[in-house]
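Model: Ready when you are.
Researcher: Fold this.
Model:
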Amino acid sequence: MKKFYNRLKFNHTQLYQQLQQWLGSSLPCVLCDAPVTADSARKSALCSHCFDLLPWYTSPRCPQCALPTSSGALCGICLQHAPAFDHTLTPFRYAYPLNRLLHQFKYHQQLSLGNVLANSLFTQVSIFAETARPQVVMAMPMHINRVKQRGFNHALELAKQVHHHCGIVLDLEGCVRVIDTPTQAGMDMKTRIRNLRGAFATHRSWQGQHVMIVDDVMTTGASMHAVAKVLKQAGATQVTALVLARTLKNEA
């Protein structure tokens, strides 16, 4: 039998390499199952059509809370009741099909999607001049009960990617969630702020630091405001929110 295979001059290594190449050139798009080329797959799990269909946020928005404004100036809400965070950077509106991808990532532990989605965050960080870049990046804190329930902190997975790609120091325990508050779905901004009172804490000094907080979606900004307020009280001079998507009123 061995002599028979030798006569066939069967090259197992070459076959394995060809199989890898074939699999890499026919990966299915996570949204429509169309083939994704090998080069594209390294950058995204989406085909070019679905990538273009993502709800990119290109219109002018308030630099502080990222709600739409006609000229890109501060919105009336931030002028009257400014949140504790100073800037919001986001590449997407929270709409289909991004919401579907985020749901798979957060609730079905498709962690590979976190890597794909994080790619869109890197260009947001690049707007900072080298001297104005955040010194520290952290994930939106999640209570330990939620981490155990879900199995991981989705915001931390995104923050890790920002850390690796942008070279910003990642802080894992500088701010923690000490109260497991009820879900905030359906609450308005004022109710959410009351609900989050005392929910976050820090036991270190943030004196003079520019901190970037990473999360998946900003709905009202109440959670980001609560964390930023704690950091500012501990000496942080600037807090930037980096989120994958911003919920807009007409899409909420």
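Researcher: Now this one.
Model:
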Amino acid sequence: MAITALFMGVVGGPHCVAMCGAACAGIGRAAGARSTQALLGFQASRMLGYALFGAFAAGSVQGLAWLGTNTAVLRPVWTMFHVAALLLGAALLWRARQPAWIE
């Protein structure tokens, strides 16, 4: 698991630089203690935003999973959703690029 986390960190690094590098550099140019306070506030709000969005996404999927397990009509839909996600993942790995219909 540690190797997987290391790999995700190394591969995800360019994404982080592209998404937040300019903002961090701009905040870091301010002078003195105000710069540190602004940078800490920026990072804290980023973490809070990611945590809230992740909790919302997890809750939504958990609600769908509960419906799929407790409603016989939705079981095939839930199963096909998982099959579609698996096929999309396989297509992304095989082609090494995003399909045009997703863009």
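Researcher: Key takeaway?
Model: The CA atoms of residues 24 and 42 lie 8 Å apart.
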